[in-house]
Each structure stands twice: as C-alpha cells, then as structure tokens.
C-alpha cells in the first residue's frame, strides 16, 4: 500500500475485523492517559493565576482528543472497543490502589498516611470517573460519528469541538457532583465543574492543529476514511 495515497472513503461495516497499523498504539495511549489522569490527577484542586481547577484537567482532555482520533479514523465500533478497554483499565487501577492502601505497612515504614491521603478516596473518585467517562466518551464518539456523515467528512474542527462540548459536558456534569459533593463545598464543586468543562473545550480548540496533523497522518498511513453509515451505535457490545 502506498503510504502517501489518498484515503479511500468506505463504510464502517466494510472494515469489520480488519487490521490497522496504528490502532493498537492509539488504544494504548488512550488507556494510559485515562488511568493516570483519573488516579493521579483527579483528587487535587489547584489554583493558578487566580483560577481554581482540578489538576487532572491538564492531561485528561487528551483522552477526548484520542477518542476523536479513534472515531474519525477507525469508526465508532472500534472507538467503542477502546472505551470499554479504558473502562476495564480504570477499574483495575482502582482495585490495585485499594489493595495497596489496605495492606499493613512494614514496621518502620512511614509512608502509609501519604498513601491514604493520595488514594484514600480513590473508590469514590474512580466510581464517579468510570460512570462519567463511560457516558461522556460514548456521547463524544456518537456526536462525532453522526456529524462526520452530516458534514460529508469536511470541517473536522466542527465535529471535534462540537463533540467535545457535548461529551465533556456530560462527563463534568456527572463526575464532579458524584466525586466531591460533601467533600468540597457545593460552591467549589460547581465552580470547578464549570471551569473544567470550559477548560476542556478550550483544550480541544487549542489542540485542533495537532488533531488535524494526527488525523491526516493516520488516514494516509491506514489508507481509509471510515464513515459510520448503518452502524449500530449501541454502547453495549465490543465487537467490530
């Protein structure tokens, strides 16, 4: 296959079960960003330049960018498979954190309080995160796939930003109340929720040139341009 050949428009059903060069790498990147953002970054509130936000906002939006790339390049069905892989990876990370925290510390080891402070709320955070991520990512992928058909594959920026507005909106609306109401003040929850939603959308706008570059590169290398015409958009399956 000529790496520089123009991608061929095909229906998503035509590539069911097919092999792609870079799909597994994008999946791995998606899962790594998702797990680290939720386990490491979600529990900390930071203030920078007078703006208060969840620290995970610096990296978590990359999962939505990668989700956009997955849907745009490989279609909804393969994006759905990756979303479920990310779901499983996040649940495993939560179990691992819980087991490590509850294990009795060795005599003389003084790091237990640090571990409990960092990961003591991980079950609530991960529970909220998994629900919010699951709903938000599927909304994001669905909106992008539908918009791609409506725009005939043109104006990539409109569907990456538009899908993020809806997907991140659902994600933030679910995650912050479930994770932090009763831990933070209601005012702080609302402030961080709205601020982070705005920042996530802004991140998508800022990263649009990167998205264009990655999408263009992958379409040329994979040689196809997948449209989800006739796709079953149920989230409750993993087959492609």
Automatic annotation (TrEMBL):
It comes from the Bacteria. It is a multi-pass membrane protein. Keywords: Cell inner membrane, Cell membrane, Membrane, Transmembrane, Transmembrane helix, Transport. One of its GO terms (cellular component) is plasma membrane. The chain crosses the membrane at residues 22-42, 48-70, 82-102, 122-144, 165-185, 197-218. InterPro entries: YhhQ. It is found in: Cell inner membrane. GO terms for molecular function: transmembrane transporter activity. Involved in the import of queuosine (Q) precursors, required for Q precursor salvage. Belongs to the vitamin uptake transporter (VUT/ECF) (TC 2.A.88) family. Q precursor transporter subfamily. NCBIfam families: queuosine precursor transporter. This is Probable queuosine precursor transporter. The lineage of its organism: Bacteria, Pseudomonadati, Pseudomonadota, Alphaproteobacteria, Sphingomonadales.
